[in-house]
Structure formats: C-alpha cells, structure tokens
C-alpha cells in the first residue's frame, strides 16, 4: 500500500512539473533613457495595478519576464529608487503598453517601439493613430474618425488584447442610440471580451441613459470623506449646471460592486486633491448601485469629491 501511495505522489509531482515546464513565458528586453544615469531606477511590469515583475535598470537596459498571454494588455513603468513612477503627479512619461504574445520581444520606451511582438506593435499603432486624430483631425468629424478607427481595429482583433482595448475606447465614444451596435460588436468577441467588466459598465450606462432618469441626489463630500449635504435635483439639469463655469469637469462613473472602478478610485482621488484648486471639478456618478452601498464605499475608499446618485437601478 505504501508503494502505491509513493507511486501516486511521484506521478502527481511529475505531472505538476511537466505542466509548469509547458507554460510558455515571454522575455521582454527593453531600453530607456533615464534622466540621471547616477541614480537607481527600476522597470516594473504591471497587470492593471498588480506588479508582475521588476528589475533594476542597468545602463539604460532591463529584462522582464511574464507568462505569454495574448488576451492581456500589460504596462511597463519606470520608477525611481523610492518606487515612485517617473513623471509629474502620476502622469507617466516613462510608460508603455505591451502584449506578451511571443517568447521574446524588445521594447524601447523612448519612442514606444517594439520588435518581435505583433500585438504590441498593433497596440502602439492604435495609440499613435488616436493621438494623431486628437492633434490633427484633418477633414471630417473627429469623433467619427475615432469611432471608425476603434471599431475597425476591434473587428481585426476580436480574440486578443488589442481588440479589447479598441472596443473599450469605442464604447466610450458611443451614444444612447448605439446600444444595439455595441451589443452586436460584443457578440463577435471572444469570451474574455464579452465578460469584460469595463465593457459591461459601458453597456449598462448606455442602456440606462436611454431611459428617463428623473430625480437624482447630489451628495456633497468633505475632504475627509464625510457627507456634508444631500440635495434632490433633476439629473440632466444638475449635470449641465456643472459645465460652463470656467472649470474642467471630470465625471467618474463607478459602482461599489465594480472591481476596476475601485482600483481606479485612488488615481481619481489624487487628481481631485492635486488639481481641485486649479480649476478641476471631479464628480462621481454612481451606477446601478444602492445608496447605502455607495456611501459605505465612499467611506472605505476615502473619496473626497461630490457624488451624483441617480438611482439608475430603478429604471432598468
């Protein structure tokens, strides 16, 4: 009996080792021009905000490792010795989006170029074309140019990370009347695209926007996250009142149950604190949420900017 147990244990270990060795990895060799060669810098590879690998930059070069996955868009950042990303106030000057779709690839953060990774090259091409339209839209409607670019890119990449990024961007450019068009595009994508939380959030928002939202509640939040006041308002009129007052307005659509929303909240808080006295008005808009859950999340996350609670869940 002991011999049988030993054999089973050995077989299990062998299967585990074989499965681990069969996992395909990607080696990312990179280069970057750091601001001060006498200082220490780190290259850090992220999946959203989760660090996957890091290494010290040596003479402008670095090597990172991660499992191959054509469905994930990853991000390389350059940090200083204290762990702070290079750049001003979280606006990264040393950052590059990549897709680990091959065994070996080379990247250059100075010009966002790459070799050996077709999907990383496609991602860079998409981002550069978007920048070009923003900077020099040329003839025609810039919004329509952006919609066409993101839609066509998605249709060419319905099974990989480039397509997911393109469709997320495309969804953000759509209007209420485009709900069915977005649903049709989603149906053509792989399962991981159809199940993407950000796309589901965009679809819910467009669906809710088709309906009469009527009364809403404007909740004023103090710097320490406490509720100062709650005021019943008409949703559309209240939103319109925020603009045209000589300030920039950032509307952050979120929900207490939305994982990506909660991950992004610290960045929004930093923006609100840094630029609040420089003309930026940040307002959160709760989506598909219960008021008590929203208030609980506001306290947990330390949200310091005002909120719209539009009760959209009552109209779906």
Any overview of this molecule?
The protein is α+β, with helices and mostly antiparallel strands and 316 residues long. It has three domains: 21-116, Immunoglobulin-like (Sandwich); 137-209; 215-315, Glutaredoxin. The chain contains ten helices and 15 strands. Strands 12-11-15-14-13 form a five-stranded mixed sheet, sandwiched between helices. Strands 4-1-9-10 form a four-stranded mixed sheet, with helices on one face. A hairpin with a 2-residue loop joins strand 6 and strand 7. The longest helix has 21 residues, at 2-22.
SSE topology:
Elements: H1 2-22, E1 25-31, E2 41-47, E3 50-56, E4 61-67, E5 74-80, E6 87-88, E7 91-92, E8 95-98, E9 104-108, E10 113-115, H2 118-135, H3 142-155, H4 161-171, H5 179-187, H6 191-194, H7 197-209, E11 215-221, E12 227-234, H8 235-242, E13 248-254, H9 259-275, E14 280-286, H10 291-301, E15 307-309
Parallel strand pairs: 1-9, 13-14, 14-15
Antiparallel strand pairs: 1-4, 2-3, 2-5, 5-8, 6-7, 9-10, 11-12, 11-15
Helix pairs in contact: 2-3, 2-4, 3-4
Search tags:
40% helix; 3 domains; Immunoglobulin-like; alpha+beta; 316 residues; disordered C terminus; Glutaredoxin; five-stranded mixed β-sheet
Given the helix and strand composition, which structural class is it? alpha+beta
Roughly what is the average pLDDT, rounded to an integer? 81
Adjacency order of strands in the biggest sheet: 12-11-15-14-13
- Strand segment tally: 15
CATH-derived architecture of the largest domain: 3-Layer(aba) Sandwich
Query: What composes the largest sheet?
Result: 5 strands, mixed
Helix fraction?
Answer: 25-40%
Order of helices and strands: HEEEEEEEEEEHHHHHHEEHEHEHE
Described by the principal axes of the CA atoms, the overall outline is globular
Q: Estimate the strand proportion.
A: 25-35%
CATH homologous superfamily grouping of the largest domain: Glutaredoxin
Radius of gyration: 23 Å
CATH topology heading of the largest domain: Glutaredoxin
C-alpha end-to-end distance: 62 Å
């Amino acid at each position: 009996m002991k011999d049988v147990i030993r054999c089973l244990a050995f077989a299990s270990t062998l299967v585990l080792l074989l499965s681990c060795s069969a996992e395909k990895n990607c080696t990312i060799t990179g280069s970057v021009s750091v601001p001060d060669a006498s200082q220490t810098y780190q290259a850090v590879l992220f999946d959203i905000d989760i660090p996957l690998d890091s290494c010290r930059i040596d003479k402008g070069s670095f090597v990172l490792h991660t499992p191959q996955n054509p469905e994930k868009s990853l991000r390389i950042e350059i940090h200083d010795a204290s762990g702070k990303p290079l750049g001003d106030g979280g606006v990264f000057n040393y950052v590059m989006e990549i897709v680990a779709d091959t065994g070996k690839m080379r990247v250059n953060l100075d010009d966002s170029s790459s070799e050996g990774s077709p999907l990383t090259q496609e991602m860079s091409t998409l981002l550069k074309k978007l920048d070009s339209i923003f900077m020099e839209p040329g003839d025609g409607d810039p919004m329509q140019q952006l919609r066409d670019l993101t839609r066509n890119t998605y249709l060419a990449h319905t099974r990989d990370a480039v397509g997911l990024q393109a469709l997320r961007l495309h969804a953000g450019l759509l209007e209420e009347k485009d709900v069915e068009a977005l649903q049709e595009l989603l149906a053509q994508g792989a399962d991981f695209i159809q199940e993407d939380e950000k796309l589901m959030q965009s679809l819910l928002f467009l669906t809710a926007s088709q309906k009469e939202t009527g009364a809403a509640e404007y909740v004023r939040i103090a710097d320490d996250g406490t509720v100062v006041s709650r005021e019943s308002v008409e949703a559309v009129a209240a939103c319109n009142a925020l603009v045209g007052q000589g300030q920039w307005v950032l509307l952050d659509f979120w929900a207490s149950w939305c994982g990506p929303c909660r991950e992004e909240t610290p960045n929004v808080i930093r923006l609100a604190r840094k630029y609040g006295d420089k003309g930026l008005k940040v307002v959160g808009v709760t989506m598909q949420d219960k008021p008590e859950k929203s208030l609980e999340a506001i306290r947990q996350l330390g949200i310091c900017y005002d909120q719209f609670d539009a009760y959209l869940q009552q109209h779906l």
